[in-house]
Q: What sequence folds into this?
């Protein structure tokens, strides 16, 4: 069917707006990349537009020469992997029973779980609980306090309700499957989109986590990458203030491009991981967000 003039104009406007939004979103990331490879003077003077000015990798050399970087990477990978597995396990085991219509007191339990999104105990009570559990200054302090995200659980619950036919679960029950077998053999194989989305949410949350580390960790060998990068940046600033005028100028200059290099170092793993789950992202979040 041939489109009318108004339809074509509407399509052109939508395409133009979409391209404009894409440029607005993508350019800041592109600017960070070219700034990390440019001379500090060019960054400070505003000479950067679309290409690096004066190719420079000294910032990356300074970052990766720091042994703490690799310790931070190792810790963050452990926290992200272990924490995401725990998150997915608890989220699934909570969402599945709440999604079933034959669950006793399902409405009340859903309300009690949702209530935690509006009201919390506060930082000090949570810290006292973690301390009394004896998990401060340990790996568990980074994965246990945030073991379940209520919003993610409700998204997964709604996905189970709206996308998994109840007849399939009833058929599995008639065939002799227990609730756990139904979850493993029927529900989860049909839930790849929402599992991919929730995995991405939790992985990004753990990868960028730093507040819990500030509160619960004292041992530098347990610091995640974000804390290590912050310390490197602060250390570079303090050395610049404490040095002579020539050294201070050089360190301040190099510190400007180091900021951008640190952003790239912290962001690349997630940017590499995202394309593998991108095809599930839209379907999972849209269907899971529908009110059940």
A:
């Amino acid at each position: 069917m041939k489109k009318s003039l108004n339809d074509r104009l509407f399509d052109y406007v939508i395409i133009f707006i979409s391209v404009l939004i894409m440029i607005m979103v993508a350019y800041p990331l592109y600017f960070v990349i070219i700034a990390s490879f440019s001379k500090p003077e060019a960054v400070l003077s505003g000479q950067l537009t679309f290409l690096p000015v004066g190719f420079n990798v000294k910032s990356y050399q300074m970052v990766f020469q720091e042994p703490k970087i690799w310790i931070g990477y190792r810790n963050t990978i452990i926290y992200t992997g272990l924490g995401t597995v725990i998150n997915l396990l608890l989220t699934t085991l909570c969402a599945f029973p709440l999604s079933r219509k034959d669950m006793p007191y399902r409405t009340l339990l859903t309300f009690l779980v949702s209530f935690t999104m509006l009201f919390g105990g506060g930082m000090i009570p949570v810290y006292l609980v973690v301390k009394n559990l004896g998990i401060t200054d340990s790996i568990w302090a980074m994965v246990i306090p945030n073991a379940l995200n209520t919003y993610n659980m409700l998204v997964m619950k709604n996905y189970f309700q709206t996308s998994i036919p109840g007849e399939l679960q009833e058929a599995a029950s008639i065939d002799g499957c227990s609730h756990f077998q139904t979850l493993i053999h029927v529900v989860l194989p049909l839930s790849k989109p929402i599992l991919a989305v929730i995995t991405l949410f939790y992985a990004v949350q753990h990868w960028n986590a730093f507040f819990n580390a500030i509160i619960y960790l004292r041992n530098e060998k347990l610091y995640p990458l974000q804390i290590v990068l912050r310390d490197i940046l602060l250390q570079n600033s303090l050395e610049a203030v404490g040095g002579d005028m020539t050294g201070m100028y050089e360190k301040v200059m190099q510190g400007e491009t180091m900021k951008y290099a640190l952003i790239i170092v912290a962001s690349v793993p997630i940017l590499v991981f995202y394309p593998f789950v991108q095809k599930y992202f839209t379907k999972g979040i849209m269907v899971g967000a529908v009110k059940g």
Notes: The CA atoms of residues 9 and 245 lie 60 Å apart.
